[in-house]
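Record type: monomer structure entry
Structure origin: computed from sequence
Chain ID: A
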Amino acid sequence: MRALLTKFSLVFIVLCASSTSLLAAPLDWPQRPFRYFADNDSLKELLNNFGANYGVSVAVSEKVSEKISGRFTPEKPAEFLDYLAQIYNLMWYFDGAVLHVYKATETRSRLLQLELLTARDLRSTLISTGVWDSRYRWRAVENKGLIYLAGPPRYVDLIIQTAEALESRLLQKANSTDELYVELIPLKYASATDREISYRDQKVIVPGIAAVLRRLVSGVQTQVVDSREQNLAEDSEGQEVITKPASVHGGATVEAEPGLNAIIVRDTQSRLPLYRKLIAQLDQPQSRIEVAVSIVDISANDISQLGVDWRAGVSVGNNSIIDIKTTGDVAGGDVTLGSGATFKSLLDASNLNYLLAQIRLLESQGSAQVVSRPTLLTQENVEAVLNNSNTFYVKLLGKETTALEEVTYGTLLRIVPRIVGDRFAERPEINLSLHLEDGSEIPDGSVDDLPSVRKTEISTLATVKQGQSLLIGGVYRDEVSHQLRKVPLLGDIPFLGALFRSNTNTTRRTVRMFIIEPRIVVDGIGDSVLIGNEHDLRPHIGQLNNISNNSTQFKSAVELYSCSTLEQAQRHQKYLLESDQSSLLSECELPTGQAGWRVKVTQCDSEPHCMRPAKEP
């Protein structure tokens, strides 16, 4: 019975090997059979002996580490490899010079994006060059130029290299017949050159339009799409979309012209419209945002007059960025003033005015001080920096050389404002990416005659509405003041003068708070009458008869010429005619219900009720 089972197993293995050999790529090797007897030998050693038998180099993956024992009966090369692949979960590929053997879990998958080459032409080239192997996955979407590959890493790499070589050749051929053109594209709003922001010992580069386009033209665009079809715990590489390097596009060049704030593009004529379209999308007007910062120090002994118990933290709800709790039982990051007025760390105008009034009261009593109140004007999504700092230098002694190390402390504010949603909303929201650093010298904390510095850093992302302010508080600071008192004349006498003078050192603890007031700067009523603006105010301002701006174009744009009688309308037309402006009349309805006429400033010729300047002969 056992002999029968053994014979059946051998027959089954032979049948499996025969069926898999039908899918194997043909090997142009001597078709002599291979025999081998293994006694606890490594599978890698068996494969190397197999390659040596046919005079072929073998590259075996490090993950192939099995031990084998037994006698291998004579088989043809491809059948023997397929037999091992089935038993030990392997895959193999012969590239014409080296036999590559991997574990099946090392299957590599790629999504190949073709630009000029077709999938049919690529496959034909792979077959003619001997790279093609029908055993492995190939799925093509011809009309999209997409090919999905899966197989041994060496096989997939050869296909990608072949595709890149063919694509490069086609592009060079196309570029040789497409002449290069140079075009200057001026910018209206965006900056062509990079902007450099320097503060302390750091530099931040804000790329201009030229830098953005240059990266698109010269970079290799590779995007991770999905994971590889293999053991993700062992290999974290992802499936990639492979595209051509943009640098092969016939020497395309993008440069900035600072004097004209323009972009100079050199490329083929067929691609110049792409540059114009992209630059037009990038060159958009940005809203102006004004950020006022108030830095206030209040004596810790007198802070109780505000009824505030500062405890810095982070709150998640109710838009509270800094958790400022009170001495009473008030939740949600509220601030309670002595009179009972309550507000959150996001202050409306009324609460802010009340708080500033209390601060001015304490300031008049010498218990508070407005350290600074700078105002920054920046554009949306452009970083603004406020740096008010002190610097001292520390001598570093080496064995042969000395150096000076710079130590800087003070107030540093970095803020990037961004409008959330519609800027024409009734109360648009402003997103603030805020980094605040506040440093001060520690009184009596010097070491080796060098001052000690304490720094406080706050980084947060807050969203406030137009008209609101962000309050950050609870940062304690210690200040030491030295005061010399003496009796005039007597205090200056040597030796004896010490009896008539005294030195007093006073330590004062203060609470520093920051009030951030962002505000969108609008261009008056013009922002509300733009064509296409859904918050159009023309129906409201069109009812005004008196307006300070007496511009005829503006009145015509918003239809401020009210409906009047024919005599009054013609009088307006004569006034416009004296200014060399054409106009015509359109019918409207007077408040009395009678028919009226409205003046419209526009070019006209032979239309009814048209008045235009006489044409020169």
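Annotation 1: The mean pLDDT is 74.
Annotation 2: The chain has eleven helices and 29 strands.
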